[in-house]
User: Fold this.
Amino acid sequence: MRIALIADTFPPLRSSGAVQLRDLSREFARQGHEIMVMVASPQQAGAWLLEEHDGVHVLRLHTPRTKDVSYARRTLAELLMPFYMKRNLQRSPLAAAAWDAVVWYSPSIFLAPLVNFLKKLHQIPAYLIIRDIFPEWAVDMGLMGRGFPYRFFRAVADYQYSVADIIGVQTPGNRVYFEQWLAGNNGRVEVLQNWLSDAGVSNCSIRIAETALAGKKIFVYAGNMGVAQGMDTILAFVQAMSGKPDVGFVFVGRGSDSERLRAEAFGRKLNNVLFFDEIDPDEIPGLYQQCHVGIVALDVRHKTHNIPGKFISYMQASLPVLAMINPGNDLEQIIVSNDVGVVSIQADTDVLTDKASQLLSRLESNNELPGRCRSLYEQLFAPEIAVSQIVRAFQS
Assistant:
């Protein structure tokens, strides 16, 4: 098939979404499909730039800047983004190219006008991969009420859903959110698990053995540190664990809270934790090889279901997890039923400390735990599974 994949993130960006889309596009190409990634590129001077990486064609289309700007400016830029992409696509050598199907990735929720243009122009089906049910999660977190901003974003999201023929959600629990959409549309909703390519272990710029945490049992958190993660509770947990001299914590990444967390850890004189800036995704397996437990953190006020990409990366690296997640999240059942870690559905440092101690004891006595993590990755989260499922959806 000739497939257009539309997104607002792709390498060299290092976000989990960029890595996912890189892995997905490579797998489409590996399975013999002609894949064209159309990605918003605010940093690009020209209208378009055509590249090829690992058999994947990437068309970078200039758009207004959406990152590291005010909320108002970001909203306006994202609203304009698909129209800039459409205009610059029509200026590119691919203006007359035809496609058999279109896939797009949310977040962002603003890409549907471009998808709808291609869908109608070529009379092709459209598959929405939705990893983030916005604005609902922002309401759950208390970041937004149900006034005009919510109604605006909800209208944009509803339009996005109306363009889709198939919507791929992360977990069975997220299907409930789309029941009303299903009642009024001929499309369908299916569970499309997250995915991550199996990368080899390469050198990592972080060498824990050369730090003050050398020789300790290492809990690692690699990813975004923002309001959605509930990191204040995690930092309080780190402080509560400071009395265990054989345990250390490593936090790697960026986000709205990362600098504040560093400052607070310094202010509390925590000598059991180290913070590092975001590293290249290819270095992550080398980092995990030096660690013992992966931390999954989601603010417990969330009401939607989420399987973070970092959870999959931990499973791939055979790292059992300590997870703090919202009650009812399908991720709890995945962790418990497959016995790949421990879960707290409370933002409670005592509970987390107790769960962490249980997990460390099990790691001392049960060498099958890492193997179960790796097995779960191979069963559910390999990118070939996701690509095959998307192609089957189009063919049906």
About this structure: The chain has 14 helices and 14 strands. The first strand starts at residue 2 and ends at 7. The chain has two domains: 2-195+382-395, 208-379. The two ends are 14 Å apart (CA to CA).
